[in-house]
Write a structure and sequence with these properties.
- This protein is mainly alpha-helical.
- It contains seven helices and no strands.
- α3 packs across α5 and α4 packs antiparallel against α7.
- It is globular and about 55 Å long.
Length: about 190
Protein backbone atom coordinates (compact mmCIF):
# COMPACT_ATOMS: atom_id res chain seq x y z
CA UNK A 1 0.00 0.00 0.00
CA UNK A 2 1.25 3.45 -0.87
CA UNK A 3 2.51 5.37 2.18
CA UNK A 4 0.21 8.34 1.52
CA UNK A 5 -2.85 6.13 1.11
CA UNK A 6 -1.97 4.33 4.32
CA UNK A 7 -1.44 7.62 6.13
CA UNK A 8 -4.73 9.07 4.87
CA UNK A 9 -6.58 5.88 5.81
CA UNK A 10 -5.12 5.96 9.31
CA UNK A 11 -5.87 9.67 9.71
CA UNK A 12 -9.52 9.04 8.82
CA UNK A 13 -9.66 6.15 11.29
CA UNK A 14 -8.08 8.36 13.95
CA UNK A 15 -10.64 11.10 13.29
CA UNK A 16 -13.41 8.49 13.67
CA UNK A 17 -11.92 7.68 17.12
CA UNK A 18 -11.11 4.09 16.12
CA UNK A 19 -9.83 2.33 19.28
CA UNK A 20 -8.14 -0.40 17.26
CA UNK A 21 -6.03 2.12 15.35
CA UNK A 22 -4.71 3.66 18.56
CA UNK A 23 -3.89 0.23 19.91
CA UNK A 24 -1.96 -0.55 16.71
CA UNK A 25 -0.09 2.77 16.92
CA UNK A 26 1.05 2.02 20.45
CA UNK A 27 3.24 -0.86 19.25
CA UNK A 28 4.22 0.43 15.81
CA UNK A 29 7.59 2.17 15.80
CA UNK A 30 6.96 3.99 12.49
CA UNK A 31 4.03 5.78 14.09
CA UNK A 32 6.26 8.56 15.44
CA UNK A 33 7.52 9.47 11.97
CA UNK A 34 4.00 9.45 10.59
CA UNK A 35 2.86 11.51 13.59
CA UNK A 36 5.36 14.20 12.66
CA UNK A 37 4.04 14.19 9.09
CA UNK A 38 0.50 14.61 10.44
CA UNK A 39 1.61 17.42 12.75
CA UNK A 40 3.21 19.21 9.81
CA UNK A 41 0.07 18.77 7.68
CA UNK A 42 -2.21 20.04 10.45
CA UNK A 43 0.15 22.94 11.16
CA UNK A 44 0.20 23.82 7.46
CA UNK A 45 -3.62 23.74 7.37
CA UNK A 46 -3.84 25.99 10.44
CA UNK A 47 -1.21 28.32 8.99
CA UNK A 48 -2.94 28.56 5.63
CA UNK A 49 -6.29 29.24 7.31
CA UNK A 50 -4.71 31.96 9.48
CA UNK A 51 -2.94 33.40 6.44
CA UNK A 52 -6.20 33.69 4.53
CA UNK A 53 -7.71 35.33 7.63
CA UNK A 54 -4.97 37.95 7.39
CA UNK A 55 -5.85 38.58 3.73
CA UNK A 56 -9.57 38.83 4.54
CA UNK A 57 -8.60 41.58 6.98
CA UNK A 58 -7.54 43.53 3.90
CA UNK A 59 -4.10 44.15 5.33
CA UNK A 60 -2.12 42.88 2.35
CA UNK A 61 0.27 40.05 1.61
CA UNK A 62 2.46 40.73 4.64
CA UNK A 63 -0.46 39.78 6.92
CA UNK A 64 -0.95 36.60 4.86
CA UNK A 65 2.68 35.68 5.47
CA UNK A 66 2.44 36.59 9.15
CA UNK A 67 -0.77 34.53 9.56
CA UNK A 68 0.73 31.61 7.66
CA UNK A 69 3.91 31.53 9.73
CA UNK A 70 2.34 32.25 13.12
CA UNK A 71 -0.47 29.74 12.55
CA UNK A 72 1.99 27.07 11.44
CA UNK A 73 4.45 27.53 14.29
CA UNK A 74 1.82 27.95 17.01
CA UNK A 75 0.01 24.80 15.85
CA UNK A 76 3.24 22.81 15.74
CA UNK A 77 4.52 24.14 19.09
CA UNK A 78 1.08 23.65 20.64
CA UNK A 79 1.01 20.02 19.55
CA UNK A 80 4.47 19.43 21.02
CA UNK A 81 3.50 21.13 24.29
CA UNK A 82 0.31 19.06 24.40
CA UNK A 83 2.33 15.85 24.04
CA UNK A 84 4.89 16.89 26.65
CA UNK A 85 2.34 17.94 29.27
CA UNK A 86 0.19 14.87 28.61
CA UNK A 87 3.22 12.63 28.93
CA UNK A 88 4.24 14.23 32.23
CA UNK A 89 0.73 14.11 33.68
CA UNK A 90 0.04 10.58 32.45
CA UNK A 91 3.31 9.04 33.57
CA UNK A 92 3.81 10.88 36.89
CA UNK A 93 0.75 12.54 38.43
CA UNK A 94 -1.88 10.07 37.20
CA UNK A 95 0.35 7.05 36.73
CA UNK A 96 -1.82 4.05 37.37
CA UNK A 97 0.24 0.95 36.69
CA UNK A 98 3.77 -0.25 36.20
CA UNK A 99 3.53 -0.31 32.41
CA UNK A 100 6.54 1.46 30.89
CA UNK A 101 5.47 4.17 28.47
CA UNK A 102 7.94 5.93 26.21
CA UNK A 103 7.63 9.46 24.85
CA UNK A 104 7.65 8.04 21.30
CA UNK A 105 4.46 6.11 22.13
CA UNK A 106 2.77 9.38 23.05
CA UNK A 107 4.11 11.12 19.99
CA UNK A 108 2.71 8.41 17.71
CA UNK A 109 -0.73 8.14 19.24
CA UNK A 110 -1.24 11.86 19.86
CA UNK A 111 0.10 12.58 16.38
CA UNK A 112 -2.77 10.61 14.94
CA UNK A 113 -5.15 12.20 17.45
CA UNK A 114 -4.18 15.54 15.90
CA UNK A 115 -5.66 14.47 12.53
CA UNK A 116 -9.00 16.31 12.93
CA UNK A 117 -6.98 19.53 13.05
CA UNK A 118 -6.98 19.60 9.25
CA UNK A 119 -10.39 21.25 9.59
CA UNK A 120 -8.56 24.37 10.84
CA UNK A 121 -7.86 25.16 7.21
CA UNK A 122 -11.38 26.64 7.20
CA UNK A 123 -10.75 29.05 10.10
CA UNK A 124 -10.84 31.94 7.62
CA UNK A 125 -14.64 31.63 7.25
CA UNK A 126 -16.03 34.99 8.39
CA UNK A 127 -17.62 35.16 11.83
CA UNK A 128 -17.29 31.43 12.58
CA UNK A 129 -13.55 30.89 12.15
CA UNK A 130 -13.04 30.83 15.93
CA UNK A 131 -15.79 28.20 16.15
CA UNK A 132 -14.07 26.07 13.54
CA UNK A 133 -10.85 26.19 15.57
CA UNK A 134 -12.77 25.30 18.72
CA UNK A 135 -14.66 22.48 16.99
CA UNK A 136 -11.41 21.06 15.61
CA UNK A 137 -9.90 21.39 19.07
CA UNK A 138 -12.73 19.50 20.76
CA UNK A 139 -12.46 16.79 18.12
CA UNK A 140 -8.69 16.62 18.72
CA UNK A 141 -9.31 16.36 22.47
CA UNK A 142 -11.75 13.48 21.96
CA UNK A 143 -9.23 11.70 19.73
CA UNK A 144 -6.50 12.39 22.29
CA UNK A 145 -8.62 10.87 25.04
CA UNK A 146 -9.15 7.78 22.89
CA UNK A 147 -5.41 7.56 22.28
CA UNK A 148 -4.58 7.94 25.98
CA UNK A 149 -7.20 5.36 26.96
CA UNK A 150 -5.47 2.87 24.68
CA UNK A 151 -1.89 3.85 25.46
CA UNK A 152 -2.18 4.12 29.24
CA UNK A 153 -5.23 1.89 29.71
CA UNK A 154 -7.06 4.69 31.53
CA UNK A 155 -10.80 5.13 32.03
CA UNK A 156 -12.39 8.09 30.17
CA UNK A 157 -12.28 10.45 33.18
CA UNK A 158 -8.63 9.81 33.82
CA UNK A 159 -7.86 10.14 30.10
CA UNK A 160 -9.59 13.54 30.08
CA UNK A 161 -7.64 14.67 33.16
CA UNK A 162 -4.43 13.58 31.41
CA UNK A 163 -5.13 15.31 28.08
CA UNK A 164 -6.87 18.49 29.19
CA UNK A 165 -4.01 20.61 30.65
CA UNK A 166 -1.81 20.40 27.54
CA UNK A 167 -4.79 20.70 25.22
CA UNK A 168 -5.82 23.97 26.91
CA UNK A 169 -2.38 25.43 26.18
CA UNK A 170 -2.60 24.19 22.56
CA UNK A 171 -6.03 25.75 21.94
CA UNK A 172 -5.23 28.98 23.79
CA UNK A 173 -2.25 29.56 21.49
CA UNK A 174 -4.28 28.97 18.33
CA UNK A 175 -7.17 31.19 19.43
CA UNK A 176 -4.83 33.97 20.52
CA UNK A 177 -3.19 34.01 17.08
CA UNK A 178 -6.58 33.93 15.36
CA UNK A 179 -8.05 36.81 17.34
CA UNK A 180 -4.86 38.81 17.05
CA UNK A 181 -4.93 38.71 13.24
CA UNK A 182 -6.78 41.68 11.77
CA UNK A 183 -10.07 40.88 10.08
CA UNK A 184 -13.25 42.95 10.03
CA UNK A 185 -15.32 39.77 9.74
CA UNK A 186 -14.29 38.11 13.01
CA UNK A 187 -16.67 38.32 15.90
CA UNK A 188 -16.26 37.20 19.47
CA UNK A 189 -18.85 34.65 20.56
CA UNK A 190 -20.50 37.19 22.90
Amino acid sequence: MDIWKQLLNRMMRAARLDNILYEEMETEREASGQAIMIALLVSAAAGLGMGITGIIGMKGPLWFLWGLLSGFFVALAGWLVWIAITYLVGTTVLRGHDKTIYFADFMGTLGYANSPGLVMLLCFVPMIGWGIILLAGIWILAAGMTAIRQTLEFDPGRALATCLPGWLVYMAGLLLVYFWLPSPYKMLPF
